[in-house]
Design brief:
There is one protein chain. By secondary structure, the chain is an all-alpha fold. It has a domain of 210 residues. The protein is built from 21 helices and no strands. Helix 7 packs antiparallel against helix 8, helix 16 runs parallel beside helix 18 and helix 18 packs antiparallel against helix 21. The radius of gyration is 22 Å and the shape is globular. One of its GO terms (cellular component) is plasma membrane.
Length: 436
């Protein structure tokens, strides 16, 4: 089995841009005591600036040449496709939200649940909603008031229902076809969403089952939940289109386009917005994703300069020099994306940064790229759901008026994700039949 011994040893100086980003990002947050002080785009820009002023001692080039390297890296085909998908995903979410598809999904789930399984049901609704929406933050914001109301009525601790919603939110963040993490993981590894989903779902399925079983054991007075909730089945059609067409293997761009179009038609039919207003709805959603799209381009340029400086070779060499098996390579990838997620508290950014490195490790060791995509998404999403500094826990804690630390012990699903992620790396399963 090939390992790092066959690689160029590279130069640690090539990692300075990444160090500059991480150190600045974390330090400013710690000093200020605020998680709003250092926007990720500014942190990435600082890393890019450092990269422009470094040189490979053996191959010094002009600043103009560095700009060319940066632009080629940022304009790489996979990254530009990722940018387009980000914008389409934002447009879809805005359209679906405006035509009340989100409300319908939540209310359908809560209306059909038997009262004696309200807590497992809340988890399932969170999973369905986050899978349909593709955003954990949107799921948390939507379900937090409902979760608080349920906790009050059935007499359970608010941190428990908060942890249930966080777990369900990270389910969708990890698996949804329109989640930015899925987009990043599949694009950086150049695999289809369908192939990644098959591997990823089988890896988390035991976690889903055990989490539901544990929630069934919680004693509650669910008879108090009797509220009638309205919904419209037609409103969930755009989500059904996205899920079905993605599963049959259609390219993501027409899938997103058809989802947006169906949402617009239903929204106009129900007079949620006019045809002219629909353009603003689409634009609003695209604006929501502009930061993420631009960050992807900046990271692509920074990684290209890091590669020129020898940083990527250095990282690959030290991550794989003692690696003699696929299992060890997968653990290296899981460790890399987990550490970046803990440092940045953003699972999408951790995937965008580590994705190209993980792909190179996979090529060197011979790891199936669908498994790499699944591992990147699983571990980054799990740690995002357990980070007291992450946006999901901060938003939930703020809405529930409790500390993020109080919620962590109840985010059982994310803990189980890590357990089974490690388990399936150890046993080398599931393995796609088709090798990428």
């Amino acid at each position: 089995m090939p390992n790092g011994s066959g690689l160029n040893k590279g130069n640690i100086k090539g990692l300075f841009p990444l160090f500059a980003f991480l150190i600045t990002y974390i330090l400013v947050r710690v000093i200020s005591g605020s998680f709003e002080t250092m926007p990720i785009m500014v942190g990435i820009s600082i890393g890019c600036l450092v990269a422009f002023f470094l040189n490979d001692k053996n191959h010094k080039i002009s600043f103009t040449k560095k700009v060319t390297i940066f632009c080629k890296g940022g304009g790489e085909e996979t990254l530009i496709l990722m940018v387009i998908i980000f914008l389409l995903a934002g447009a879809f979410y805005s359209v679906a939200n405006s035509m009340h598809a989100v409300d319908s999904i939540v209310n359908i789930g809560l209306s059909i649940l038997p009262s004696n399984i309200i807590l497992p049901g809340l988890f399932v609704v969170s999973c369905i909603l986050s899978f349909a929406m593709g955003t954990s933050m949107g799921t948390v914001s939507t379900l937090a008031p409902i979760a608080i109301g349920i906790a009050t009525k059935i007499g359970v601790d608010i941190p428990l229902v908060a942890g249930i919603v966080i777990g369900g939110a990270m389910f969708g963040d990890n698996l949804s076809f329109i989640s930015d993490t899925t987009i990043a993981a599949t694009r950086t590894q150049e695999v289809t969403m369908k192939d990644k989903f098959k591997v990823n779902f089988l890896m988390v399925l035991p976690a889903i089952i055990i989490n539901i079983a544990l929630l069934l054991l919680v004693d509650v007075n669910a008879s108090a939940v009797t509220e009638h909730l309205d919904f419209n089945l037609l409103n969930i059609l755009p989500y059904a289109i996205i899920i079905v067409l993605s599963l049959v293997g259609m390219h993501v761009i027409p899938v997103m386009g058809l989802g947006i179009l169906s949402g617009l038609i239903i929204g106009v039919m129900h007079q949620d917005f006019t045809i002219l207003e629909s353009f603003k709805v689409i634009h609003t959603g695209m604006v929501w994703m502009e930061d993420m799209a631009l960050i992807a381009v900046l990271v692509g340029g920074m990684v290209a300069l890091m590669k020129y400086l020898g940083g990527i070779d250095y990282l690959l060499y030290h991550l794989t020099k003692n690696v003699k098996s696929v299992r060890a390579g997968e653990f290296s990838i899981a460790s890399l994306v987990s550490l970046l997620d803990i440092a940045t508290t953003n699972n999408t950014i951790s995937i965008i940064v580590s994705g190209p490195i993980a792909k190179n490790i996979g090529n060197e060791i011979g790891i199936n790229r669908s498994r790499i995509a699944a591992i990147l998404d699983l571990f980054s999403s799990a740690f995002s759901g357990l980070s007291p500094f992450g946006g999901q826990l901060l938003v939930m804690a703020g809405l529930c008026s409790i500390s993020p630390i109080d919620i962590i012990p109840y985010v059982w699903y994310c803990m189980l994700m890590l357990v089974f992620g490690i388990f399936f790396i150890i046993i080398g399963k599931p393995m796609p039949k088709k090798v990428n």
